[in-house]
Amino acid sequence: MDMAIDQEGATETASADALHKRVYVAMSVVAAIRGCLEFIPLWLSEHDSLMQAVLEAWAAALRVEATPDRSSHLARPMLVEHVVCSLLQATRAMANPPALLFKLLEVAGRSSEIVDTSFVFRYVWDDLVVQWSIAKRREILGAFLPRLADNSVSDESNAIVLQHLINPMVATVFTLPNIALASSPGGAAASDVATLSPEQRGAELLRAPILSLIHQRGWQAHMTSGSQPMVASKASVRLELVQLSSILIRHASTAVADLRKDVIKFGWLFIRNDDIMIKNASYVLVAQFIAAFDTPPKIILQAYSSLLKAHQVE
Question: pTM of this prediction?
Fold first, then answer.
């Protein structure tokens, strides 16, 4: 028995040593790849196997525990930094294809405790979120929303993309003054965008099939006919979806008016959530709903009464 335990411990130690060595070697390889991308920016896009190897090296680095007495102690953060920078270079060179952009954000978000990745989020905000046309935003939404029902995509990844790209991208449609329209129902030119009201911008952004996807993947997927929400995602995704819903109700209530019953059901169910952040975000959503639509006094009183008792959870 003791011998079996000793053998198992030796196997685990050997496996850990192999992983540390792999990280050390991968650091040098990915550094070389990063250097090559300076001269051949599309190199990763032309070699799928190379892209996969870079992502596998990053995943291996996340599995390694940081221990000062290991040779990989410094190699680990250096490897992660090289991967993040390589993905950013490739994303820029390829004009930000949605799948690669989502992966870049996931890698940056999950690596933020190892190295500083704030430069990725600055790039996304300065070069993409505040620059994209409404048509481009529709393209990104159309690529992202099906991921919410894709079991191969982690909730952590979806939450990061929602927080750093989708929600800011949707919110700025209504708050920035000079967002171009690639096309609009009336054939408005890009220079006419400043004359459009927030409701008109919302109608353009949410044209079919975008609103239907938000309804199916966001609101309906988290509800049942009972009193409790389905466990369709982790708390981090639910929080971001509640905040996205608040943005739409506040700025584009006319566009979502036909679905308002499901929106209020979605918000009301999460008021009962044990997570205090989701609960408070849901109160904001319900308040936005009451301000935007004619709401029965009974619902208003229930929301107010529930809010008065909310401090008891804290």
Answer: 0.87
